[in-house]
Amino acid sequence: MYFFVCMVIEEIVPQLPKKLEKIKKSYKNCSNLGKFTTVNQEEFSAHLEKAKSDLANVESDFRKQSWDRVIIKSYYSTHHAINALLIRKNGFYSKDHICAILALKFFEIIPQEIYDVRKWKQLSKKDAESIYLLAKEIVAFAERECYK
User: Fold this and answer.
1) How far apart are CA 2 and CA 16, in angstroms?
2) Spatial contact of 73 and 55, defined as CB atoms under 8 Å apart
3) Is residue 81 within 8 Å of 47, Cβ to Cβ?
């Protein structure tokens, strides 16, 4: 799962335009593709509570040194928080992670330092490879055991 999160981050970062004109164009493309779902603005609280719940689990999992859960829950906590902001400010959310981030920037809801996502890339290739090899080993074992 760590590898998956690293892959997602590696896929998101190059796709986030830097210039305002491209941000607008990309946002409109997301909108035209139906990537946003309109909801009542009061529904933001469910997403925010889910983000906070996931984050509380991260703290607990961190103390337990359950690194896979830390990574997964941190990622989902971030996504739920992004959608809470979109719902509260604009009355819609997106399951598409890139479109959600673009919408935050398009509507100037987030500061530049968050949009730059440089912090997101602090995961090393070695970290990703280690988790990937572990996942690969587990999947191979499960496949062997399931088809015995």
Assistant:
1) 21
2) yes
3) yes
- Looking at residue 124, what is its pLDDT? 61
Instruction: Please report which confidence band the pLDDT of residue 51 belongs to, taking 50, 70 and 90 as the band edges.
Output: confident
Answer whether 106's CB lies under 8 Å from 24's CB.
yes
Among candidate residues 70, 115, 63, 107, the one with its CA nearest the CA of residue 89:
107
Range of the domain at 56: 2-146
Residue 85's H or E segment, with its range, is: helix 67-90
Answer with the residue of higher pLDDT: 72 or 115: 72
Contact yes or no for 84/41 (Cβ under 8 A): no
Domain count, the chain: 1
Q: How many angstroms separate the CA atoms of 83 and 95, rounded?
A: 8
